[in-house]
């Protein structure tokens, strides 16, 4: 909005320049000799007063009453100045007094400036050419300037509107209540009292006081060198404008951006697909606010005593040269013949600066600060249009000039938007020496500072101690100070707090520096907080659905990239649809002690980076996540479930029913997944996910569930689960799951060639360098050397045991357990042991198994014990995405819990079995050893059979009763 203030102020300043313009020659440089000067002097006006028609440079100084002079251009013959006064008196050779002077200045383009006052005086000198050379003077009492911006050609084309009163919208009125003084030698203009400028577009007032207006100009290049309103003032612009755009991405903007294009009428088509585009990235780093201010002020304000460089080789180089060849201080109004020139100005408002934007009686925006500094370009486009609308051009009358039927800038005039700026201290305006390369004609930079800088608009509020805005490339910085960080809030309750907040729309990026906070009480920004933000329930997608607040904190900074997505909007004025490119956060990178909380969910880490897809709903700060990368002591918690790791990477998609779900996840660095009764730990964990059909919803909505399809854990793998004890220790775990999330197969590897993997579940354990589990085939395999253990109530010699006993089996050439065939095979050198029995063989040990139903009833399906322990070690990840996710469970009557027990044993290859009994004190009571080519034990029948040649040894260490101790012991024959 500041841009239009300055353009209006500049027009006001240039209008004031007309005070001294009438006393300066306006002649151009002498044309080449082959151009013949016209001889016409223009028409005279019938009057009872004496009329003098003069060439420029022939103005006499002589006393008289009601004199009227017209000064003609010596080359074109057109009237350049008209001068009337009630009385003209030469007080001395150098001083002339006037009563009620009336001066009219005709610009080359046909615009007319009218100057009147109650009285005036002027000090003059005579040059060597006998021309009158005004030096200094004053105008006193009711000084008024009127600038008619219509061109000569427009007035000729529209004679019915030629009179000033018939086109008031093209007039600029300037009043000075007291006195205006000008010094042409010092190039200085001052005014006392109140100053006011009024037009159809603007109303500007300078507070009264001594030298309320001070201006210096450069006579060489027709440019203001210094302007100040000393005692503050007020500006009101009536043709719209907009506050500095500080809104968060996703917010509706008050002004269309460069990417806005007209679309067809609303009925012509539906909403466009949400295809985003990424603004071109600037390779350089994003500037801080301090660096941005340095860049803005890189072109220092020009000294008021320094002359500008020559515009061409014929231009004078000093003020004295300018006296011999006068220049036109209002030459900028001749837009037809002069080349484009862009000037850069610096304006500073000081003292309780207050800016308001109003639409009708409604206040729609405010800015408050102690000091407001503006740097802006002023070129032909801004002078012609800018805050003053579009003054008529002097060419292409039919196509470009206003007509009786179409007044100039009619659409703008119908606008009810106004901007009001008030300040109490001085306003200073100076030109700046900027490099030509940065003088684009569109530059507009603003720096607002104060103990408390406050900005409000329909989107929300911003509070800081310094606000920096650059129109190129559309950047804004909000800087806090001390214990008062920058704060940005929106109407829907979102809040952003940081030491420095920066948005660079042109480069498509931003940064929030220092310790910060981002809140979203409505949950719209929940996707920015956690992968599980879009909850899988009907209420989440309903208009009135409950939404969980999100809070994000960090201690260092946040970097983010902006994307642009199309959004169809309806123009309130035309009723037609327009397509706008709405900003959204495409990538966000949080640094330093990051904490993201949503309800019972929490994600933390030293660095968290998220990539987002195009928004699916209006106003979204950030929509669905496409990738999440977290590093540095990462903690992901959902109630009593958690994941901790050194880093966590997740890829996500959007399902057909609108949920944001993961497709893969990778955790590195001491990863640890914990659920009630379950733990998975490893140095590296990978998970792949897939969708499966879920039960029909009450509203017949199709739904899917996210299931883990593959789990890979590497290095120092540890799995623990209860209540059925599951233990896995190894170097690598690779597990596959079905559409229900049930385990299909798993491979557990030990470290290197010699490391072992250890697995244990309920009554069984299998250990070896590689353990393969095939759930569908109910098969467990271990190649090479290994170990197995299980619980039995029958010893391998066929005896029933009083208590369940653990059987340990070691083997050297592999093991296979087949649950469908109900057998187990151990190969190589096999050794089995229990506390009372040992069995070994050199070739193979075969066990025949049978199913045993657990006497205990299976727990209810909703209890933690009902989960398939160990088959869902990363179920927490899916729960973060889908609140309603539950592992698939089968009712107890459909799938009773089973376990296997051996009922037949066959040991082959130099088999040997040893059975030992112990006395109550633990001493060996007796031992039996039997050996043969093979040994069979039918545990169900308690029967033992040795095939082929064998041996049997009996050892009895029991103490005989006392009555029999003296009897001799008969020798025992060798059974062999």
Characterize the structure shown.
Among the domains are: 2-237 and 378-440, lipopolysaccharide transport protein A fold, CATH 2.60.450; 777-854 and 897-976, Sandwich (lipopolysaccharide transport protein A fold), CATH 2.60.450.10. The relative contact order is 0.07. It has 11 helices and 58 strands. With 976 residues, the protein is mainly beta. Helix content is 7%, strand content 48%. Mean pLDDT is 70; it is low at 1-61, 252-274, 303-339, 380-414, 524-545, 855-898 and 969-976. A hairpin with a 2-residue loop joins β25 and β26.
Entry summary:
With about 1000 residues, the chain is mostly beta strands.
Shape, per Cα inertia axes: rod-shaped
Q: What would CATH call the architecture of the domain at 2-237 and 378-440?
A: Sandwich
CATH topology of the domain at 2-237 and 378-440: lipopolysaccharide transport protein A fold
The percent of residues in helical segments reads under 10%
The CATH superfamily of the domain at 2-237 and 378-440 is: Lipopolysaccharide (LPS) transport protein A like domain
Q: Unreliable stretches, pLDDT < 50, 5 or more residues?
A: 1-61, 252-274, 303-339, 380-414, 524-545, 855-898, 969-976
Strand residues, percent: over 45%
Profile the largest sheet.
58 strands, mixed
**CATH first level of the domain at 2-237 and 378-440: which class?**
Mainly Beta
Topology, number of strands = 58
Mind telling me the C-alpha Rg?
A: 47 Å
> How many helix segments?
11
Q: Average the pLDDT over all residues and give the rounded result.
A: 70
* Class by SSE composition: mainly beta
Euclidean distance between termini CA atoms: 114 Å
């Amino acid at each position: 909005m500041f841009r239009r203030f300055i353009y209006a102020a500049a027009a006001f300043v240039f209008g004031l320049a007309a005070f001294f313009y009438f006393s300066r020659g306006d002649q151009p440089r002498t044309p080449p000799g082959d151009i013949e000067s016209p001889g016409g002097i223009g028409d005279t006006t019938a009057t009872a007063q004496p009329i003098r028609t003069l060439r420029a440079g022939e103005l006499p100084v002589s006393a008289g009453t009601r004199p009227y002079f017209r000064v003609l251009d010596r080359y074109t013959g057109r009237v350049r100045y008209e001068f009337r006064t009630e009385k003209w008196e030469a007080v001395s050779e150098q001083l002339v007094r006037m009563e009620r002077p009336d001066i009219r200045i005709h610009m080359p383009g046909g615009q007319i400036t009218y100057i009147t006052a109650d009285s005036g005086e002027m000090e003059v000198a005579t040059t060597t050419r006998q021309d009158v050379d005004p030096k200094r003077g004053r105008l006193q009492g009711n000084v008024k300037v009127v600038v008619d911006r219509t061109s000569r050609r427009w007035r000729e084309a529209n004679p019915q509107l030629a009179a000033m009163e018939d086109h008031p919208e093209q007039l600029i009125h300037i009043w000075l209540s007291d006195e205006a003084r000008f010094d042409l030698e010092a190039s200085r203009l001052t005014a006392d009292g109140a100053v006011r400028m009024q037009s159809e577009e603007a109303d500007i007032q300078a507070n009264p006081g001594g030298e309320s207006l001070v201006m210096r100009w450069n006579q060489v290049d027709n440019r203001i060198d210094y302007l100040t309103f000393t005692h503050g003032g007020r500006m009101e612009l009536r043709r719209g404008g907009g506050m500095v755009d500080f809104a968060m991405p996703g917010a509706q903007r008050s002004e269309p951006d460069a990417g806005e294009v007209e679309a067809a009428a609303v009925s012509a088509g539906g909403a466009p697909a949400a295809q985003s585009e990424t603004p071109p990235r600037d390779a350089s780093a994003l500037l801080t606010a301090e660096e941005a201010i340095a860049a803005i002020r890189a072109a220092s304000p020009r000294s008021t005593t320094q002359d500008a460089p020559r515009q061409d080789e014929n231009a004078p180089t000093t003020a004295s040269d300018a006296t011999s060849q006068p220049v036109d201080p209002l030459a900028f109004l001749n837009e037809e013949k002069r080349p484009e020139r862009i000037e850069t100005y610096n304006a500073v408002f000081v003292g309780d600066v207050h800016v308001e934007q109003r639409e009708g009686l409604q206040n729609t925006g405010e800015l408050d600060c102690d000091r407001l500094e503006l740097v802006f370009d002023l070129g032909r486009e801004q002078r012609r249009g800018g805050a003053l609308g579009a003054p008529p051009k002097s060419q292409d009358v039919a196509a470009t000039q206003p007509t009786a039927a179409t007044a100039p800038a009619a659409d703008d005039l119908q606008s009810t938007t106004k901007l009001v700026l008030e300040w109490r201290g001085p306003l200073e305006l100076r030109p700046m020496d900027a490099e030509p390369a940065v003088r684009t004609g569109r530059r507009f930079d603003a720096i607002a500072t104060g103990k408390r800088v406050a900005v409000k608009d329909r989107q929300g509020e911003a509070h800081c101690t310094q606000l920096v805005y650059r129109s190129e490339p559309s950047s804004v910085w909000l800087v806090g100070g001390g214990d008062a960080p920058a704060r940005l809030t929106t109407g829907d309750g979102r809040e952003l707090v940081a030491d420095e907040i920066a948005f660079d729309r042109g480069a498509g990026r931003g940064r929030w520096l220092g310790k910060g906070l981002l809140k979203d009480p409505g949950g719209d920004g929940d996707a920015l907080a956690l992968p599980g933000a879009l909850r899988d329930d009907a209420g989440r997608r309903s208009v009135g659905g409950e939404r969980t607040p999100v809070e994000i904190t960090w201690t260092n900074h946040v970097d983010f990239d902006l994307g642009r997505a199309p959004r169809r909007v309806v123009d309130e004025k035309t009723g037609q649809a327009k397509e706008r490119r709405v900003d959204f956060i495409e990538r966000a990178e949080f640094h330093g002690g990051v904490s993201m909380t949503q309800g019972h969910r929490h994600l933390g880490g030293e660095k968290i980076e998220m990539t987002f897809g195009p928004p699916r709903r209006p106003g979204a700060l950030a929509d669905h996540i496409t990738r999440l990368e977290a590093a540095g002591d990462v903690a992901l918690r959902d109630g009593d479930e958690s994941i901790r790791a050194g880093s966590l990477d997740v890829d996500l998609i959007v399902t057909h029913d609108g949920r944001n779900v993961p497709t893969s996840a990778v955790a590195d660095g001491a990863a640890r997944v914990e659920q009630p009764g379950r733990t998975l730990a490893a140095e590296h964990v990978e998970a792949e996910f897939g969708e499966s059909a879920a039960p029909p919803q009450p509203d017949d909505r199709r739904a899917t569930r996210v299931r883990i399809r593959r789990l890979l854990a590497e290095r120092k793998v540890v799995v623990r689960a209860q209540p059925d004890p599951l233990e896995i220790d190894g170097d690598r775990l690779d597990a596959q799951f079905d559409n229900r999330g049930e385990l299909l197969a798993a491979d557990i590897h030990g470290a290197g060639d010699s490391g072992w993997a250890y697995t244990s579940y309920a009554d069984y354990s299998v250990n070896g360098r590689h353990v393969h589990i095939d759930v569908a085939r109910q098969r467990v395999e271990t190649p090479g050397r290994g170990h197995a253990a299980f619980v039995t109530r029958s010893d391998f010699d066929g005896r029933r045991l009083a208590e369940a006993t653990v059987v340990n089996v070691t083997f050297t050439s592999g093991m296979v357990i087949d649950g469908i065939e109900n057998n187990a095979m151990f190969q190589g050198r096999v050794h089995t042991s229990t506390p009372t029995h040992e069995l070994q063989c050199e070739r193979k040990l075969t066990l025949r198994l049978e199913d045993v139903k657990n006497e205990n009833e299976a727990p209810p399906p909703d209890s933690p014990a009902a989960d398939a322990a160990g088959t869902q070690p990363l179920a927490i990840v899916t729960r973060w995405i889908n609140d309603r996710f539950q592992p698939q469970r089968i009712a107890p009557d459909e799938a009773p819990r089973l376990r296997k027990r051996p009922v037949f044993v066959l040991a082959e290859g130099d088999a040997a079995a040893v059975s030992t009994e112990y006395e109550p004190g633990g001493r060996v009571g007796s031992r039996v050893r039997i050996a043969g080519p093979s040994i069979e034990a039918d545990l169900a029948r308690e029967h033992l059979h040795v095939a082929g040649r064998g041996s049997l040894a009996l050892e009895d260490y029991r103490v005989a009763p006392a009555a029999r101790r003296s009897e001799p012991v008969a020798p025992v024959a060798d059974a062999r």
